[in-house]
Design brief:
Number of domains: 3
Structural class: alpha/beta
Mean pLDDT: 82
Helix content: 25-40%
Shape: elongated
Low-confidence stretches: 297-308
Radius of gyration: 24 Å
Largest sheet: 5 strands, parallel
Strand content: 5-15%
Distance between the termini: 44 Å
Length: 308
């Protein structure tokens, strides 16, 4: 009976071609190495969820999937909230539990290192800091981050337009704050009137929201040198680069990470051509401890074409 159930479950995962090996079917405490649980690489352009209680192995599951993707030449971006994934850069060390599991599942396990690059939001960890210029980020995304209404968003767009007309690059929050302060000063009244009668009160709201963003780490994110999204798509010696974004200091404050994510998705959507159905994705995102990164009280839908 158990063998019949095992094969019936495994049949649902039967697929041809390259696929992720997630393990084997377990029924009544018995593992059947012939009943493989597999997910085709071609279906990884869809959203997935790894759920479970604390200590059940969610992070290790993500690591195992990321390692297989890297081996297949697929770059991976991992939001590493707890810092548990940095070990991917070095070969693992054999132990009795690993050898027992490999025997039970029929895996030919061998210690392997993967090409890993470390990025950080907020700096101060020794990893490469992630930055983007405000000019590249643009007023539309920035208005979402600042939680502006339509009128305030329109005003922010006019401010960006004025800075562009004056050939003033907006590299960081200090640049934008200086422009807003100029436009709301006595010296800037004429300029303010010339870009469409922007209300000083509205400009003041934007300025206060910008100051709040700075307090939440925005002054560390906006600036130069700017991250090139193409760097996330690299393949080294046939293996996809695994980019670990350190977020330990941002776990209690997801605003900065949301800012980065919105910008990155917009950049990738703009740069990557339409490719149709692929045998494997060009880049895979993982968000470990996602409940710490995204607010459950208020959701915004940000999605790029899954076929890009």
């Amino acid at each position: 009976m158990a063998e019949s159930a095992t094969q019936e479950i495994a049949a649902g995962y039967t697929t041809e071609g390259a696929a992720l090996e997630l393990g084997c079917v377990l029924v009544d405490g018995a593992v059947d190495p012939a009943a493989r649980v597999r997910i085709p690489f071609a279906t990884l352009n869809r959203h997935g969820l790894v759920a479970g209680a604390t200590g059940t192995g969610k992070t290790k599951t993500l690591q195992g999937i990321a390692e297989q993707l890297s081996t297949a030449g697929v770059p991976v971006l991992l939001a590493d909230v707890k810092g548990d994934l940095s070990g991917m850069a070095r070969p693992g060390e054999p132990n009795a539990k690993i050898e027992e599991r490999a025997k039970d599942t029929g895996d030919d396990w061998a210690p392997t290192a993967f090409p890993v690059e470390f990025l950080s939001l907020g700096g101060g960890s020794g990893a490469i800091p992630i930055r983007a210029t405000l000019t590249q980020f643009g007023p539309i995304l920035l208005s979402k981050v600042l939680d502006l209404n339509e009128t305030q968003e329109s005003t922010l767009g006019l401010i960006f337009h004025w800075a562009d007309q004056q050939a003033l690059p907006l590299l960081d929050t200090k640049d934008l704050r200086a422009v807003i302060q100029h436009l709301t000063s006595d010296e800037g009244k004429a300029d303010l009137k010339g870009i469409g009668g922007v209300s000083p009160a509205t400009a003041g709201v934007i300025l206060r929201a910008l100051v709040n963003l700075e307090a939440q780490g925005g002054d560390d994110f906006f600036g130069e040198p700017e991250l090139d999204p193409a760097d996330l798509l690299r393949v080294v010696d046939g293996k996809g680069v695994v980019t670990l974004v350190e977020l330990a200091d941002q776990a209690a404050n997801p605003r900065l990470f949301s800012t980065f994510l919105m910008w990155l998705l917009a950049e990738l959507y703009e740069d990557l051509p339409e490719a149709g159905d692929l045998d494997k994705p060009k880049l895979v995102f993982f968000f470990d401890e996602a409940h710490l990164l995204f607010s459950t009280r208020r959701r915004r839908s940000w999605s790029a074409s899954s076929r890009r």
